[in-house]
Amino acid sequence: MQRKNKTLGEFIIENQQEFQYSTGELSKLINAIRLAAKVVNHEVNKAGLVDILGAAGETNIQGESQQKLDVLANEKFKQTLQNREIVCGIASEEEDDFITINSQDEQHQNKYVVLIDPLDGSSNIDVNVSVGTIFSIYRRVTPIGSPVSLEDFLQPGVNQVAAGYIIYGTSTMLVYTTGHGVNGFTLNPAIGTFYLSHPNMQFPETGRIYSVNEGNYTHFPQGVKDYIKYCQKEEDDRPYTSRYIGSLVSDFHRNMIKGGIYIYPKSSTAFNGKLRLLYECNPMAYLAEQAGGRASDGYRRILEITPTELHQRVPFFCGSRKMVEKAESFMAQYA
Ligand code: AHM
Ligand code: MG
């Protein structure tokens, strides 16, 4: 069991040998994300001051032009990741195409690609509700020495070497996995240090919370409608509690701690749902499985889906193992 009060920096050094390639590069990469997280956290915390400091598109009193926070978060993460000799390419929910990063000697020696949703749930910012950053890391599949290519990004989620999120909530937390369980670190904003606060996070096997945008109920597939009715039925430990923040990171984080299921299904208006396989579902699915939970599209394991495009969407069922299995059993009746 990990000692609770160690810093993220200490934790990264101590656990470096757990990583199969163990060259220290992945540790440097997590360190870069840690740094960008602090910068973005600082910006997110100032969001309520927008009327004083200037709104997006305006120039503030210091003469700096203001950016929308999701654009700014994208820039901060890109800058931080580019400045290391580790990442050969970045794909972001904010960008149409992937970005190639050349190593200083232009020899394409960098081994990792990072996929990122820099500020997920950003529609919540104006109303002071939690948002998050989601990241996913793979080793490139094309040979070192050649430029990064699309196939380096279109890998199934099982190939991830690390994934995580930052939640800008009542506290700011960084939660991540390198395939050896899930650990959560809370930022002490006074000194800018993340401390291990949630070692070895685990989804309860089952729970009593379901998180789905029920406003879309009429457009949902029959299997999802039936599962929602099951959640609401007075029987055994039901009805369950409905909790939906509309911010994937926050809904996931709560469900991992308390036990629950998150569903963003396909619907008659959004045929593949809304969430992106590469930037949202794969990293969350990897975290869920590492924490003893489960993630599927209602039928298939998310991590085994071979992506065909960068911004591919996929239905998402994720959370406590038994709850996801139950939802899948309802889906199977109409397969
Ligand atoms: P975004 O990437 O545009 O922020 O959208 C993703 C967000 C998730 O965080 C959240 O779970 C979902 O969209 C909410 O969507 P909806 O408002 O349709 O329920
Ligand atoms: Mg998003």
Automatic annotation (TrEMBL):
<feature type="domain" description="Fructose-1-6-bisphosphatase class 1 C-terminal">
    <location>
        <begin position="204"/>
        <end position="331"/>
    </location>
</feature>
<dbReference type="GO" id="GO:0006000">
    <property type="term" value="P:fructose metabolic process"/>
</dbReference>
<keyword id="KW-0479">Metal-binding</keyword>
<feature type="binding site">
    <location>
        <position position="119"/>
    </location>
    <ligand>
        <name>Mg(2+) 1</name>
    </ligand>
</feature>
<comment type="subunit">
    <text>Homotetramer.</text>
</comment>
<protein>
    <recommendedName>
        <fullName>Fructose-1,6-bisphosphatase class 1</fullName>
        <ecNumber>3.1.3.11</ecNumber>
    </recommendedName>
</protein>
<dbReference type="GO" id="GO:0042132">
    <property type="term" value="F:fructose 1,6-bisphosphate 1-phosphatase activity"/>
</dbReference>
<feature type="domain" description="Fructose-1-6-bisphosphatase class I N-terminal">
    <location>
        <begin position="6"/>
        <end position="199"/>
    </location>
</feature>
<feature type="binding site">
    <location>
        <position position="244"/>
    </location>
    <ligand>
        <name>substrate</name>
    </ligand>
</feature>
<dbReference type="Pfam" id="PF00316">
    <property type="entry name" value="FBPase"/>
</dbReference>
<comment type="similarity">
    <text>Belongs to the FBPase class 1 family.</text>
</comment>
<dbReference type="GO" id="GO:0006002">
    <property type="term" value="P:fructose 6-phosphate metabolic process"/>
</dbReference>
<dbReference type="GO" id="GO:0005986">
    <property type="term" value="P:sucrose biosynthetic process"/>
</dbReference>
<feature type="binding site">
    <location>
        <position position="213"/>
    </location>
    <ligand>
        <name>substrate</name>
    </ligand>
</feature>
<feature type="binding site">
    <location>
        <position position="117"/>
    </location>
    <ligand>
        <name>Mg(2+) 2</name>
    </ligand>
</feature>
<dbReference type="GO" id="GO:0000287">
    <property type="term" value="F:magnesium ion binding"/>
</dbReference>
<keyword id="KW-0119">Carbohydrate metabolism</keyword>
<dbReference type="InterPro" id="IPR044015">
    <property type="entry name" value="FBPase_C_dom"/>
</dbReference>
<feature type="binding site">
    <location>
        <begin position="120"/>
        <end position="123"/>
    </location>
    <ligand>
        <name>substrate</name>
    </ligand>
</feature>
<feature type="binding site">
    <location>
        <position position="280"/>
    </location>
    <ligand>
        <name>Mg(2+) 2</name>
    </ligand>
</feature>
<dbReference type="InterPro" id="IPR000146">
    <property type="entry name" value="FBPase_class-1"/>
</dbReference>
<dbReference type="InterPro" id="IPR033391">
    <property type="entry name" value="FBPase_N"/>
</dbReference>
<keyword id="KW-0378">Hydrolase</keyword>
<dbReference type="Pfam" id="PF18913">
    <property type="entry name" value="FBPase_C"/>
</dbReference>
<keyword id="KW-0460">Magnesium</keyword>
<feature type="binding site">
    <location>
        <position position="274"/>
    </location>
    <ligand>
        <name>substrate</name>
    </ligand>
</feature>
<dbReference type="GO" id="GO:0005829">
    <property type="term" value="C:cytosol"/>
</dbReference>
<dbReference type="InterPro" id="IPR028343">
    <property type="entry name" value="FBPtase"/>
</dbReference>
<keyword id="KW-0963">Cytoplasm</keyword>
<comment type="pathway">
    <text>Carbohydrate biosynthesis; Calvin cycle.</text>
</comment>
<comment type="pathway">
    <text>Carbohydrate biosynthesis; gluconeogenesis.</text>
</comment>
<feature type="binding site">
    <location>
        <position position="93"/>
    </location>
    <ligand>
        <name>Mg(2+) 1</name>
    </ligand>
</feature>
<dbReference type="GO" id="GO:0030388">
    <property type="term" value="P:fructose 1,6-bisphosphate metabolic process"/>
</dbReference>
<feature type="binding site">
    <location>
        <position position="117"/>
    </location>
    <ligand>
        <name>Mg(2+) 1</name>
    </ligand>
</feature>
<dbReference type="InterPro" id="IPR020548">
    <property type="entry name" value="Fructose_bisphosphatase_AS"/>
</dbReference>
<dbReference type="GO" id="GO:0006094">
    <property type="term" value="P:gluconeogenesis"/>
</dbReference>
<feature type="binding site">
    <location>
        <position position="120"/>
    </location>
    <ligand>
        <name>Mg(2+) 2</name>
    </ligand>
</feature>
